[in-house]
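Tip: read the tokens left to right.
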């Protein structure tokens, strides 16, 4: 959460506007390396896909792993779940040993992430339906009530398109 103040408030408003401007647009095509070194193609997913762009910045990114795992388990087979990061393979393995995330893991360079032009901050979550962005949110809550609100947002979109 940003501190209260004119600069912080203005920044938060710009991020919300940037995120909402992506809703209804097509997900840009990108490739990444999966954990098994196969190539991931963003265009080859199920009808519904949740993308979680993150890095090992602590609770803003890692704090949602438990709720994300619950959603992945609940909607397994109905939606694809991808964790996208610029962490190297060894660093990714170390983080996931401590804090498991049961998604397909895709590694991409920071330059490649920047060239996609999606993220306004980390973590960054997208839910797409047939390649169209239906949900877009930057930043990660760290307090339990805010995490629960975010879970409800994710679940609302997943339920609408998966059930």
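Filled-in amino acids:
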């Amino acid at each position: 959460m940003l501190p209260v103040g004119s600069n912080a408030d203005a920044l938060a408003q710009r991020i919300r506007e940037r995120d909402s401007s992506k809703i209804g647009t097509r997900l840009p095509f990108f490739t990444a390396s999966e954990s098994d070194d196969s190539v991931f193609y963003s265009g080859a997913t199920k009808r519904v896909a949740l993308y979680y762009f993150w890095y090992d910045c602590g609770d803003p990114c890692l704090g949602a792993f438990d709720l994300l795992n619950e959603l992945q388990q609940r909607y397994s087979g109905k939606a694809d779940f991808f964790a996208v990061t610029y962490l190297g393979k060894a660093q990714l393995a170390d983080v996931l040993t401590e804090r498991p995330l049961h998604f397909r893991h895709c590694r991409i360079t920071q330059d490649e992430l920047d060239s996609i032009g999606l993220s306004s901050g980390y973590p960054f979550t997208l839910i797409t339906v047939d390649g169209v962005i239906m949900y877009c949110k930057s930043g990660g809550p760290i307090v339990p009530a805010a995490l629960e609100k975010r879970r409800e947002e994710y679940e609302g979109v997943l339920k609408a398109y998966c059930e």
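The helical segments are 6-22, 59-62, 65-74, 89-98, 110-116, 144-162. The longest helix spans residues 144-162.
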